[in-house]
Specification:
Number of domains: 1
Helix content: 10-25%
Radius of gyration: 18 Å
Structural class: alpha+beta
Number of helices: 3
CATH topology: Metal Binding Protein, Guanine Nucleotide Exchange Factor, Chain A
Shape: globular
Strand content: 25-35%
Largest sheet: 6 strands, antiparallel
Order of helices and strands: HEEEHHEEEEEEEEE
Length: 193
Amino acid sequence: MARRTFLGALVVGSAGLAWWKFGREERTEAAMAAGEGTGAAGAKTVNIVEFTDAGVRRETVNVPVIRKSEDEWKKQLSPIAFEVTRHEGTERPFTGALLNVHDKGVFRCVCCDTALFDSATKFESGTGWPSFWAPIAKENVLESADTSLGMVRTAVSCRRCDAHLGHVFPDGPKPTGLRYCMNSVSLRFAKAA
């Protein structure tokens, strides 16, 4: 019986590894389609759209991808922000500091300051996490398959620094019908002046 259990666990583990690899390959293909490339020095670059804190679109720029060591991220981020953004964790529902923020402004990546969501798209989802019906610019986020927890979901991350933000679900309000369910600790709110 122990051998059968071991073989079963081996098969399940192999299947999980294959799903993880598939999700990473899908993410790479999506990144290439979004205009990612390499700069003159060989550093990977991405196209993102810049916004003011009032949500005014400025320009599309090609910038280097931000890569840091685990220790560098730990120095920059709180322990929970580090766990969520760098290890795809999740904060407890109804505990995030940005859950009830409704001022005019932009929600930026806590790791690299890229504009991610405009407060005009924020809505009360009742889920316990800040929710938005659209990102501020599709170019600024990356969506990929997440097969953890025995289900298939769509993870959302920052295109510039690969910070895990949360997940997107097809149960949001009009006009998109989407719910970008984000972790407060992945975001920094920049209030419009």
